[in-house]
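Annotated sample (chain length 452).
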Amino acid sequence: MSDAEQTQGTTGRLLAGRYRLGDVLGRGGMGTVWRATDETLGRVVAVKELRFPANIDEDEKRRLITRTLREAKAIARIRSAGAVTVYDVVHEDDRPWIVMELIEGRSLADVIREDGPLKWRRAAEVGLAVLDVLRAAHLQGILHRDVKPSNVLIADDGRVVLTDFGIAQVEGDPSVTSTGMLVGAPSYISPERARGQKPGPPADLWSLGGLLYAAVEGAPPYDKGSAIATLTAVMTEPLGPPKNAGPLEGVMYGLLAKDPQKRLDEAGARALLTEAVNAPDERLPAPSRTSADPEATQAIAVPKVPEKADKAEKADKPVRSAKPAKPVRTERPPASASAPRKQSLEKTEGGRSAFRPLRDAAPSGSASARPEAEPQPQPPLGGAYTETLVRMRVPAQRRVLLAVVAVVVLAVIGTVIALLVHRGSSGDEGLRPLVPVRASVASVVSDDLSGI
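Output written by the structure step:
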């Protein structure tokens, strides 16, 4: 019966009265992985079926069954987020079926083939995840012995999982590999295993180095097309320099050292992989020096206000000063009929100005300051502004005019007195009545001037 016929006859089968088989997720030389539904717990799982090759003898069949059970026990002993969880092992048709956690995603080999090589930072992240699983396995005395891209799953959520412990070597268990047989992918087999030596944890680390090389270069470090030629290159040829390794170059050379005693250990590999993950990518633009912290102090360029809007804003705001407003002296306007009048109004005796500060221009913040009225446009400074001030101070004009009239009257009275003195120079009778009058007039003029 062909594989297609066997698959078609098995689809929909209820395994152990609990697991309903669905689609085929993958098929290898010794087994098939199914998507299945656990009808007892209502969850989707993966079921690995052991398949026997044609014309197999009973001894080889027992060896494969033992290897499958060993794989289930090995995975169950590993405590790592990067290892698949084993739920159950059932026996049907005289062979074991392993019920495991279902990982939705693609293998690293599929990712490289479909999307191209990984960036070195992502490859370093994958390497760290695989290293975590290997460390947990080595602590339990388990050697994976088949670390390669097709046995690394990249879940849809980014999780990295190392699978297929089918040829794992468990400390204390007898070997199930036939004498003289070397099981594994030739491109990822360590030099000591290729020489027939007993492997240890460094053998898995060598395979991890080959996996990192393939992840960024797209092909394993030693691949000559045939198993014998590839194994010979693994044992004898130096490592070809990688082109896309970036910061991973050091960890690659350290893990792919042919002498296991000189090979990079787990702690050293972890340090270099972590350094590569945190290394800056020179292909990306340099980050801005401006802090992204929303509370950080920053210098921000304020957009320039248009000229028209700026003028309108100035016109709406009154000019305020901390000092009392003073009259503004400007150049006199051109001579006109009113020029003499202006000159007489601008100066009085002693050179003092005839203008006082405007009463509504109190200092800012003063207790006597009036409430602010609606802001008015500020008139332009100049001769017209002086004339406006003169027109606004009507009471001051009146006092000045009265002073001028008083001076004229005083001059007339002085003239009259002079005439009287001249006529009555023979006696003092005509002079006495006029002295009080002159004094009273002078006092009136003095009072008027003091009020200005």
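Annotation: The longest helix spans residues 394-423.
Annotation: The two ends are 131 Å apart (CA to CA).
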